[in-house]
Amino acid sequence: MNAPTAFPDQSKPVPPYKHTPLFPLGADTTPYKKIMAEGVRVEKVLGRDMLVVSREALRALSEAAFGEINHYLRPGHLKQLRAILDDPEASPNDKFVALDFLKNANIAAGGVLPMCQDTGTAIIMGKKGCNVITDGDDEAALSEGARDAYLRRNLRYSQVAPLSMYEEKNTANNMPAQTEIYAEGEDAYKFMFMAKGGGSANKSFLFQATPSVLTKDRLLAFLKEKILTLGTAACPPYHLAIVIGGTSAELCMKTVKLASARYLDALPTQGSPDGNAFRDLEMEQEIHKMTQSLGVGAQFGGKYFCHDVRVIRMPRHGASLPIGLGVSCSADRQVLGKITKDGVYLEELEHHPAQYLPEVEQALGGEVVKIDLNQPMKDILAALSKHPIKTRLSLTGTMIVARDSAHAKLRERLEKGEPLPDYFKNHPIYYAGPAKTPEGYASGAFGPTTAGRMDSFVDQFQAAGGSMVMVAKGNRAPAVREACKKYGGFYLGSIGGAAANLAEHCIKKVEVVKYPELGMEAIWRIEVVDFPAFTIIDDKGNDFFKELNLG
Fold this sequence. Notes:
The protein is of the alpha/beta class. The chain contains 15 helices and 23 strands. The protein has helices spanning about 55-70, 75-85, 90-110, 140-150, 200, 215-230, 250-260, 280-295, 375-385, 405-415, 420-425, 455-465, 480-485, 500-505, 545, and strands at about 30-35, 40-45, 50-55, 120-130, 130-135, 160, 170, 180-185, 190-195, 205-210, 240-245, 280, 305-315, 320-330, 335-340, 345, 370, 390-400, 430, 470, 490-495, 505-515, 525-535. Helix 9 (about 375-385) links the parallel strand 17 and strand 18 (about 390-400). The chain is globular, with a radius of gyration of 25 Å. About 45% of the residues are buried.
């Protein structure tokens, strides 16, 4: 009996192999600036010119990258924000949010307060040319640079290490970083650095669809339904990325992340029998128009749910159709870098965002209702009850800050038969976690976190007299609406993505109240002045986001 061999007959003719890269990108037109010349040299090895890169060059590039992207944005992103202000079709709330983002960008560009309190997971992708030599410890050198940026700047440590299945501890340096290094190219070492916040990362979705979806009408209907599930919790306007296909689920989602960072913009715009990925420009425009028609807008209703859309079509297994969805949020933080024989380079971000502000600030957002938070809770509730949802508010007084871990601690109290502490009953609860406080400042960057993560606590807490007024970002589950109607509570939406502006102008005092061991997830007491918010859910069961099919 003849068994098949691992190596079939090599004399059997096959056509010559023609390699087609899966992602055939065009020329790199990125504007770069040189940050250092040291740490690189060229040496002859076996008759070839080899680029020798020192460990310090890698570390320094990574540190510079994560410092830059927490304070500066790409010019294209800022131009898109300014375009909202100049668009007569933009809603007043669209313009109010866009103007706040531009103010926030100007404050962050001072280099002290980061643009968002969630300064992200450090993600590094490197493409190492075949003629590049390092000491082989590239991942450690790049991670060290990222760590140094978080230690030396006013950035938040968001990474928690599992000590057991249920016990975790903040690593206190934002490590570990996610570092991936590929072999590609010849004479350069190229990088993309990304700081990915939790709210934005949480809006990454994989749908294992079937090939039956691949007709225009069915695909667009499928995508419309899924795009609505993004909601507003990750701080729109978004850079939306959609990937149709992929040789695996993980490659589909990796492509989503790269497309949301506009890393794949130079892909071809049509496919081929060889199976390369391509951008579908026609579908990008069609889906962008669809997002404008949803009415969600830049967080509080309008046209600008998305700045732009990227649609990437990829090859797939005939029995599979992965579809990926993801966003880059208003903290649009990524930067390209490269190391060549001429030195170490970083993409040129916009260091002077003031040029995008209007000469005279418009009166945006409609009438503002001032709410005194230093009066008894029953009076705060009575004041809020006089006004409908969508009312723009200005809050002044004391708020208590608590998020996931603190909520879990308080739930333990209730389950032991203990009452909620008075501070949780007497003050509004702001879902947030601050970045480090710079010297001479009352607060570090301190914007709202995603409200939906606290949805499961609301009914239990309101029944116990707490969480009667909640302040955060994004849409919430129907259970929150029902609890507010039952117990007379309110949910107020704050502008997600403007943390530096809030720290600079609104938050006047910050102090720890309980659980300092939780780091940024401790319970804090803050004093605010003219803190901007909108009434999203009221004590009558009205829900602004339900009107937009997000509730």
